[in-house]
Amino acid sequence: MSAEKNTFAIETTSLTKKYGNKVVVKRLNLKVREGEIYGFIGRNGAGKSTTLKMLCGIASPTEGEIRIFEKPVSDPVVRRRLGVLIESAGLYFHMTARQNVMMKAKCMGITDEKSVEEVLRMTGLADAGKKKVKHFSMGMKQRLGVALALLGNPDLLILDEPINGLDPEGIRELRQLILELHEEGKTILISSHILGELSKISTNYGIIKDGELIEQLTREELEEKCQDYFQLEVEDVKRSLALIQESFPQVQAEVEDARAIRIYGLEDGAGLNQMLIENQISVYASGFHRMDLEEYFLERMEGGRQYV
Known about the structure:
Belongs to the ABC transporter superfamily. The chain is α/β, with parallel strands linked by helices.
């Protein structure tokens, strides 16, 4: 993949947005280096879309500063380096895909029809023909939105939930497209609630909770923090915990539900099972697992792991 650079494609300082008395984004210090695929993660209502709208100049900050490629977001040069898909792509439903892209190309001053054909090809819409957008599936509309964002060969792409409505094949194709654009040196900021997909492409992550950026980390840092754990399903959780603490004092145990225990720092799973069975505790299931991005995200949303 393309090497990440030391300069910032996006840098915000104390970025804040208020609607009346409600603060929806709180003093955000977001840093995205050139060449990164930055996965922006947060629950619905956490402030993701509002942040992205401010980065694109669609919404104005109440306080703070935004710099895109070290220039203010209002700079016309910056706007030409930016491709955006946020919420609705602003499609003309009575037109075809090609007519939609041609319309935007003209508004951007792009006269080369090859650019139009290229973005349609890249997004799998070259064969859409005379079919009007009003007859498109949601997935086709999403792909058209990405095609519009790619017009003008931007250096920075900001994509808000771009895989919404895509079937598995469409998701795979979009993933491949994003990786190809990354290979070309483009910087991509992408939000999605499908965390399994983000984990396949992102080089960096930012987690937003209640309008605050609570963590930024690289893929390698995430892998270090996603610990292995031993999962147990047992008949008697309370008694099992007491025995685990007594026999394996070096481990950390977390109660998942009425039957499940998650154990960190354990090496001898077979020995633990044997100990429980010898103490007449039924073990229904057990095994080692690796924490993934979704589990790590949920843990951060809950304010950290609670050990017993």
